[in-house]
Amino acid sequence: MGQRSPLVTLAATAVGLVTFLVVNSTQTGNPTPAGSPAAVISSATPTASDTSPAPGTVPPTATKTTTPPGTTPPSKPSAQVTAVYAGRTNGLEASLAIATKGERAAAYVCDGRRLEAWLTGTFRDGHLALRSKTGERLTAAITNNAAIGTFTLSGRTLRFAIAKAGPPAGLYRARNNTSTIGWIVLPDGKQVGIDNDGTPAPAPPLDTTTRAATVDGVPVTAQAVVGDETF
Q1: What is the pLDDT, as a whole number, of residue 68?
Q2: Which tens digits make up the pLDDT trace of 66-100?
Q3: Reduced to 3 states, what is the DSSP secondary structure of residue 62?
Q4: Domains contained in the chain, number
Q5: 0.70 cut: is pTM over it?
Q6: DSSP letter at 208?
Q7: Which residues of the chain fall below pLDDT 50?
Q8: Are residue 132 and residue 217 in the same domain, yes or no?
Q9: Is the residue at 185 inside a domain?
Q10: CA–CA separation, 227 vs 171, rounded Å?
Q11: How far apart are CA 86 and CA 112, in angstroms?
Q12: DSSP string of 66-85?
């Protein structure tokens, strides 16, 4: 067998040295040298600690307001609306005024001479149902700022369609030791009323600014009637 050349001998020595270093690194657990392909791949791959939230922190969540079970949001109380309707019956037999407040209503019907009636009752869902102590009845529907209905007295029915009226139009009442006086002030300013001390008679003029009147020489002060009056 011929002798090996010096170059072949040197190459074999180098291969043996590399093999020794690789085996030694694996056995001793030494890390892969920085800059090697394996080190570059390892540093580019995220770990669980890189994506986990910091200890003691909670990811933010959307705030949601809920109503406790079995509860209902509070509702606003219904408004106690006050309104007055005034006018004459269709056949001009009498004048009348109706005052409403919330679910209650009051009315006065008179002809300025002898016929008169004070009535009270309910106002619900746009409908009036009123009655006097002596049995007169008034029913009406409230639509488009008008009251349309009938007044029944001793079997006689009077029909009416009257409009909503602003001050000083409306319904007024006063009392003294002997009399009860009622006034209807119509939208045109005319007054119709009765002074009833047992014998009905036309009411004296009413000052709508001061609400003052004089009955048999005695001054009285009238009050505006609203729907919750009781007669």
Answers
A1: 57
A2: 555 655 554 444 455 789 999 999 999 999 999 99
A3: coil
A4: 2
A5: no
A6: T
A7: 1-51, 62-65, 74-78
A8: yes
A9: yes
A10: 10
A11: 15
A12: -PPTT-----PPPP--EEEE
On the 0-12 / 13-18 / 19+ scale of CB atoms within 10 A, 55 is exposed
86 close to 105: Cβ distance less than 8 angstroms: no
Do 18 and 112 lie in one domain? The reply is no
Query: Which domain covers residue 159, as residue numbers?
Result: 83-224
Residue that is written with structure tokens 């040197």 in the block:
10
In the DSSP assignment, the letter for residue 207 is B
Residues in Cβ contact with 151 at an 8 Å cutoff, skipping those fewer than 6 apart: 89, 94, 96, 109, 117, 136, 137, 138, 157, 158, 160
204 neighbors 196 (Cβ within 8 angstroms): no
Candidates 199, 201, 165, 197; CA nearest to 184 is 165
Residues 118, 204: Cα–Cα separation, whole Å: 18
Do residues 26 and 89 both lie within one domain?
no
